[in-house]
Write a structure and sequence with these properties.
This protein is of the alpha+beta class and 235 residues long. It has 2 domains: 39-73; 79-234, Sandwich (Immunoglobulin-like). The chain contains 2 helices and 12 strands. It has helices spanning 40-73, 167-177, and strands at 79-92, 98-110, 117-129, 132-139, 142-144, 149-162, 180-195, 198-199, 203-216, 222-224, 229-230, 232-234. Strands 1, 2, 3, 4, 5, 6, 7, 8, 9, 10, 11 and 12 form a 12-stranded antiparallel beta sheet that branches. Strand 9 (203-216) and strand 10 form a beta hairpin.
Length: 235
Protein backbone atom coordinates (compact mmCIF):
# COMPACT_ATOMS: atom_id res chain seq x y z
CA UNK A 1 0.00 0.00 0.00
CA UNK A 2 1.11 3.53 -0.69
CA UNK A 3 2.30 5.69 2.13
CA UNK A 4 -0.29 8.43 2.57
CA UNK A 5 2.25 10.66 4.27
CA UNK A 6 4.42 11.03 1.10
CA UNK A 7 3.38 13.63 -1.50
CA UNK A 8 2.48 12.38 -4.94
CA UNK A 9 5.17 12.34 -7.66
CA UNK A 10 4.52 14.99 -10.29
CA UNK A 11 7.57 14.36 -12.66
CA UNK A 12 11.02 15.92 -13.16
CA UNK A 13 11.48 19.66 -12.74
CA UNK A 14 11.29 21.71 -15.96
CA UNK A 15 14.70 22.79 -17.44
CA UNK A 16 15.69 26.44 -17.30
CA UNK A 17 15.57 26.92 -21.07
CA UNK A 18 12.05 25.59 -21.26
CA UNK A 19 10.51 28.43 -19.37
CA UNK A 20 7.06 29.35 -20.75
CA UNK A 21 6.59 32.62 -22.63
CA UNK A 22 5.04 35.39 -20.64
CA UNK A 23 1.30 35.56 -20.74
CA UNK A 24 1.32 38.99 -22.34
CA UNK A 25 3.10 37.63 -25.46
CA UNK A 26 6.36 39.58 -25.02
CA UNK A 27 9.76 37.92 -25.46
CA UNK A 28 12.21 37.59 -22.61
CA UNK A 29 15.03 40.12 -22.35
CA UNK A 30 18.25 38.47 -23.56
CA UNK A 31 21.64 40.23 -23.07
CA UNK A 32 22.48 42.62 -25.92
CA UNK A 33 25.24 41.63 -28.43
CA UNK A 34 28.48 43.41 -27.71
CA UNK A 35 31.13 44.06 -30.45
CA UNK A 36 34.58 42.61 -29.89
CA UNK A 37 36.97 45.22 -28.56
CA UNK A 38 39.46 46.92 -31.02
CA UNK A 39 42.76 45.11 -30.45
CA UNK A 40 46.40 45.45 -31.47
CA UNK A 41 46.14 42.84 -34.24
CA UNK A 42 43.49 44.88 -36.06
CA UNK A 43 45.62 48.03 -35.80
CA UNK A 44 48.69 46.20 -37.15
CA UNK A 45 46.78 44.81 -40.13
CA UNK A 46 45.45 48.27 -41.01
CA UNK A 47 48.96 49.74 -40.81
CA UNK A 48 50.42 47.03 -43.08
CA UNK A 49 47.65 47.56 -45.63
CA UNK A 50 48.23 51.34 -45.72
CA UNK A 51 52.01 50.83 -45.95
CA UNK A 52 51.71 48.44 -48.92
CA UNK A 53 49.41 50.85 -50.76
CA UNK A 54 51.81 53.75 -50.13
CA UNK A 55 54.79 51.73 -51.42
CA UNK A 56 52.91 50.77 -54.59
CA UNK A 57 52.12 54.42 -55.29
CA UNK A 58 55.75 55.37 -54.59
CA UNK A 59 57.11 52.77 -57.05
CA UNK A 60 54.63 53.86 -59.70
CA UNK A 61 55.65 57.51 -59.31
CA UNK A 62 59.40 56.72 -59.37
CA UNK A 63 58.99 54.44 -62.38
CA UNK A 64 57.09 57.13 -64.25
CA UNK A 65 59.77 59.72 -63.47
CA UNK A 66 62.57 57.41 -64.64
CA UNK A 67 60.69 56.63 -67.82
CA UNK A 68 60.19 60.33 -68.53
CA UNK A 69 63.89 61.06 -67.96
CA UNK A 70 64.86 58.12 -70.18
CA UNK A 71 62.59 59.33 -72.98
CA UNK A 72 63.92 62.88 -72.70
CA UNK A 73 67.62 61.96 -72.64
CA UNK A 74 67.38 58.86 -74.87
CA UNK A 75 70.80 57.32 -74.01
CA UNK A 76 72.50 55.52 -76.90
CA UNK A 77 75.10 52.78 -76.69
CA UNK A 78 78.60 53.71 -77.91
CA UNK A 79 80.10 52.64 -81.25
CA UNK A 80 83.22 50.42 -81.31
CA UNK A 81 85.52 49.82 -84.25
CA UNK A 82 88.85 48.02 -84.59
CA UNK A 83 91.24 50.43 -86.29
CA UNK A 84 94.46 48.46 -85.83
CA UNK A 85 95.36 44.88 -84.99
CA UNK A 86 98.81 43.31 -85.03
CA UNK A 87 100.42 40.09 -83.85
CA UNK A 88 104.11 39.49 -83.10
CA UNK A 89 106.15 36.41 -82.16
CA UNK A 90 103.28 34.10 -83.03
CA UNK A 91 104.56 30.58 -82.48
CA UNK A 92 102.97 27.21 -81.89
CA UNK A 93 104.84 24.50 -80.00
CA UNK A 94 105.77 21.31 -81.78
CA UNK A 95 103.38 19.37 -79.56
CA UNK A 96 100.52 21.66 -80.56
CA UNK A 97 99.41 22.19 -76.95
CA UNK A 98 100.86 25.64 -76.24
CA UNK A 99 100.94 28.99 -77.97
CA UNK A 100 103.11 32.09 -77.78
CA UNK A 101 102.32 35.50 -79.20
CA UNK A 102 101.53 39.15 -78.56
CA UNK A 103 98.42 40.87 -79.91
CA UNK A 104 97.93 44.65 -79.98
CA UNK A 105 94.49 46.01 -80.76
CA UNK A 106 93.42 49.62 -81.21
CA UNK A 107 89.74 50.52 -80.74
CA UNK A 108 88.02 53.63 -82.00
CA UNK A 109 85.19 54.38 -79.51
CA UNK A 110 82.53 57.00 -80.17
CA UNK A 111 79.92 58.36 -77.76
CA UNK A 112 76.89 59.34 -79.93
CA UNK A 113 74.96 60.97 -77.06
CA UNK A 114 74.38 64.71 -77.22
CA UNK A 115 73.27 65.04 -73.59
CA UNK A 116 75.09 62.29 -71.67
CA UNK A 117 78.66 61.34 -70.83
CA UNK A 118 79.78 57.71 -70.43
CA UNK A 119 82.08 56.20 -67.82
CA UNK A 120 83.85 52.90 -68.56
CA UNK A 121 85.16 50.74 -65.73
CA UNK A 122 86.28 47.14 -65.10
CA UNK A 123 87.30 46.74 -68.75
CA UNK A 124 88.57 43.39 -69.96
CA UNK A 125 89.70 42.48 -73.50
CA UNK A 126 90.13 38.93 -74.85
CA UNK A 127 91.37 37.29 -78.04
CA UNK A 128 89.79 34.11 -79.41
CA UNK A 129 90.57 31.82 -82.30
CA UNK A 130 87.09 30.99 -83.55
CA UNK A 131 85.34 30.22 -80.26
CA UNK A 132 88.51 29.11 -78.43
CA UNK A 133 90.01 31.39 -75.81
CA UNK A 134 93.68 32.40 -76.21
CA UNK A 135 94.48 35.26 -73.82
CA UNK A 136 93.07 38.32 -72.05
CA UNK A 137 94.11 41.57 -70.38
CA UNK A 138 92.74 44.53 -68.43
CA UNK A 139 92.25 48.01 -69.88
CA UNK A 140 92.44 51.22 -67.79
CA UNK A 141 89.07 52.91 -67.12
CA UNK A 142 88.21 56.07 -69.02
CA UNK A 143 85.43 58.63 -69.47
CA UNK A 144 83.88 60.04 -72.62
CA UNK A 145 82.21 63.41 -73.01
CA UNK A 146 79.27 64.15 -75.27
CA UNK A 147 79.88 63.33 -78.94
CA UNK A 148 83.52 62.47 -78.18
CA UNK A 149 85.66 59.94 -80.05
CA UNK A 150 88.37 58.11 -78.07
CA UNK A 151 91.26 55.79 -78.94
CA UNK A 152 91.54 52.76 -76.65
CA UNK A 153 94.48 50.37 -76.89
CA UNK A 154 94.99 46.92 -75.42
CA UNK A 155 97.98 44.58 -75.50
CA UNK A 156 97.47 40.87 -74.89
CA UNK A 157 100.19 38.24 -74.48
CA UNK A 158 100.46 34.48 -74.28
CA UNK A 159 103.76 32.81 -73.34
CA UNK A 160 103.69 29.07 -73.87
CA UNK A 161 100.06 29.17 -72.80
CA UNK A 162 98.04 25.98 -72.98
CA UNK A 163 95.37 26.07 -75.69
CA UNK A 164 92.45 23.77 -76.32
CA UNK A 165 92.58 21.11 -78.97
CA UNK A 166 92.26 22.41 -82.52
CA UNK A 167 93.56 25.92 -81.83
CA UNK A 168 97.21 25.31 -82.68
CA UNK A 169 96.48 23.02 -85.61
CA UNK A 170 93.87 25.45 -86.97
CA UNK A 171 96.24 28.42 -86.80
CA UNK A 172 99.01 26.45 -88.53
CA UNK A 173 96.59 25.27 -91.20
CA UNK A 174 95.37 28.85 -91.89
CA UNK A 175 98.94 30.13 -92.13
CA UNK A 176 99.96 27.38 -94.50
CA UNK A 177 96.88 27.71 -96.73
CA UNK A 178 96.32 31.49 -96.86
CA UNK A 179 99.10 33.14 -94.93
CA UNK A 180 96.37 34.76 -92.83
CA UNK A 181 94.71 34.02 -89.51
CA UNK A 182 91.36 35.41 -88.34
CA UNK A 183 90.74 36.16 -84.68
CA UNK A 184 87.74 37.29 -82.66
CA UNK A 185 88.14 40.10 -80.15
CA UNK A 186 85.79 40.56 -77.20
CA UNK A 187 85.58 43.39 -74.71
CA UNK A 188 83.50 43.60 -71.53
CA UNK A 189 83.10 46.75 -69.45
CA UNK A 190 80.89 48.28 -66.79
CA UNK A 191 79.43 51.51 -68.15
CA UNK A 192 77.42 54.30 -66.58
CA UNK A 193 75.55 57.06 -68.41
CA UNK A 194 75.59 60.47 -66.69
CA UNK A 195 73.79 63.76 -67.08
CA UNK A 196 75.09 66.22 -64.53
CA UNK A 197 74.31 64.74 -61.13
CA UNK A 198 71.82 62.25 -62.56
CA UNK A 199 73.15 58.75 -63.29
CA UNK A 200 71.77 55.57 -64.74
CA UNK A 201 72.67 52.38 -62.94
CA UNK A 202 75.82 50.61 -64.12
CA UNK A 203 75.36 48.19 -66.99
CA UNK A 204 77.48 45.49 -68.58
CA UNK A 205 78.67 46.49 -72.05
CA UNK A 206 79.51 43.62 -74.44
CA UNK A 207 81.61 44.27 -77.54
CA UNK A 208 82.37 41.56 -80.12
CA UNK A 209 84.62 42.12 -83.15
CA UNK A 210 84.47 39.06 -85.39
CA UNK A 211 86.89 37.75 -88.01
CA UNK A 212 89.63 40.34 -87.62
CA UNK A 213 92.23 39.00 -90.04
CA UNK A 214 96.00 39.44 -89.90
CA UNK A 215 98.50 38.44 -92.60
CA UNK A 216 101.18 36.51 -90.71
CA UNK A 217 104.71 36.17 -92.05
CA UNK A 218 107.04 33.24 -91.42
CA UNK A 219 108.60 34.94 -88.41
CA UNK A 220 105.20 35.20 -86.71
CA UNK A 221 104.56 38.89 -87.33
CA UNK A 222 101.42 40.21 -88.96
CA UNK A 223 99.15 43.21 -89.45
CA UNK A 224 95.41 43.56 -90.00
CA UNK A 225 94.33 43.26 -93.60
CA UNK A 226 91.79 45.60 -95.15
CA UNK A 227 90.05 48.48 -93.43
CA UNK A 228 88.81 48.75 -89.90
CA UNK A 229 86.27 46.28 -88.57
CA UNK A 230 82.94 47.38 -87.06
CA UNK A 231 82.06 45.65 -83.79
CA UNK A 232 78.76 44.51 -82.39
CA UNK A 233 77.81 46.27 -79.15
CA UNK A 234 75.10 45.33 -76.66
CA UNK A 235 74.14 46.44 -73.14
Amino acid sequence: MADASRPPVTGYPAPQYAQPYPANGSYPNYPAYQQAPYNAYTARAAFVRRFVIAMIFLFVILGSLLLMVWLILRPKIPDFRVDSFTVTNLNVSSSGQSLTGTWAVGFDVFNPNKKMTIEYDEIGASVFYRSRFICETRVPPFQQGKRVRSAVNATLSAANSFVEGGVASGINADRAARGEVSFNIKLLARVQFRKGGWRLRRRLLRVVCRDVTVAVSKNGTGMMTGEGRECGVAV
